[in-house]
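User: My instructor asked us to take a sequence, write out its structure as tokens, and then describe one feature of it. I'm not sure where to start. Here is the sequence I was given:
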Amino acid sequence: MWAVRAAVRPGTWLSRVVRGCRAPRAAPPLPPRPERALAAFREGPRGPEGRGAAEPGPRADGGKGRAGEEKEEDEEPEDEEEKEEALLRRDPLLPAGTQRVCLVHPEVKCGPGKPQGSRAEWQVAEARALVHTLDGWSVVETMVVPTKTPDRKLIFGKETLEHLTEKIRGSKEITAVFLNVERMATPTKKELEAAWGMRVFDRFTVVLHIFRGNARTREARLQVALAELPLLRSHLKNNGAPLDGRGRGSRYIMGSGESFLQVQQRLLKDKEAKIRRALERLRRKRLLLGRQRRRREFPVISVLGYTNCGKTTLIKALTGDAAVQPRDQLFATLDVTAHAGSLPSRLTVIYMDTIGFLSQLPHSLIESFSATLEDVAHSDLLIHVRDVSHPDTEQQKASVLSALRGLRLPAALLDSMVEVHNKVDLVPGHSPMGPHAVAVSALLGLGLEELKAKLEDAVLRATGRRALTLRVQLAGAQLSWLHREATVQALDVMPEAGVADVKVIISNSAYGKFRKLFPE
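Assistant: Let's start with the prediction itself. The structure tokens for your sequence are:
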């Protein structure tokens, strides 16, 4: 299924190596705290961003840096940003104000349309949660309606449709219908609205509306606009309505030799090209940020999972980042954010909070958001967070793994993925199976130390870092070099002997210099 530009926030402070232990005067300070590392992760070679902390994502500052270093592009001129904003001005997908919804779930009993492994009641519960995510919307009636013909134009058989129509029209409470199908064809939507006398919506429209409301960065908003284009094309094809909602206006066709429909189709094609160009500019900046991160060698851990499984809560528990505010709703995280934390070895890592997955999403929506998880492929480690208290947890896991396979991630990255069984406080006696699984309660802080230890082992393996214990002289360059180039885990100074025992982590790039300075 589906990283957008990282919105970086400060993380927790890196504690001192050994409290009360005085390092030699010649030794420089310990490695930077995680929030400073995160600032470096964000800044780039020439210092802090020019846009200020309120604007998430990488900066685009021009000019040349040090020799051999690539620089981000110039800031887009204001007219470019205005053009992008024009692309994002769209009519609302759903009616404003309070809506009392009838949730209609077509239950396929058999055949190719029958969902695998998921019961109707769980699918209805997820659909209800989607509706309740919308401000002012509530479900006042739920109907699970059997059907043998989900691919037919009107989905239900004649008698079933007549009975359904009678119930919907006979209720004075209902103001809209949510048909829990992936996507309705426009003719189906028009006929059902005519039969039921009110607006009818599918999962695609509702999820897209939620995305609109939760998208914060320009990249996320542009990706939502790109995902809407198939809906606009379908609408145009079936009723020829102008894209701006106004009358047809002959100025579009006088002297051009184009029909009204051709003009509208061309405008949509132009809009798509402009959105894709804008997204490509942002993608290049994100790739540059990734190169800068790899130069600094901050390990990146991408946290992913089914929507509302507790990813953001887990990141807050791992980093202590007070700026992280989890929300109990679907797709609360749409813009990927970066948060710095430290592992038991005091190694600073970057946790990437990614977008949530959902089953039964249309291909066009998935395709538009494929770039959202592009950075996942460049991570050092993946965490798959599962809500093990959910009755459909196994089907949710299958949906996430299917989406990850669709991203064509490296096999080694998928094989090393750590599976976090979250919300175990709601499942007494739960015991995870498999060598890469850990049971936690992110909300209560249960199992976090075991998880951090497992993450540390996985990160060291994935990045090729070496954990070493050394005895070094207090005088000389060795101890200073370790403080500057390595991650110091522990320091035991023995001043009477003029030596110190040091536990360190050495990166791959520094190991060659290390061997020269510390010959065997």
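For the description part of your assignment, you could build on this observation: The CA atoms of residues 45 and 69 lie 8 Å apart. Try explaining in your own words what that tells you about the chain.
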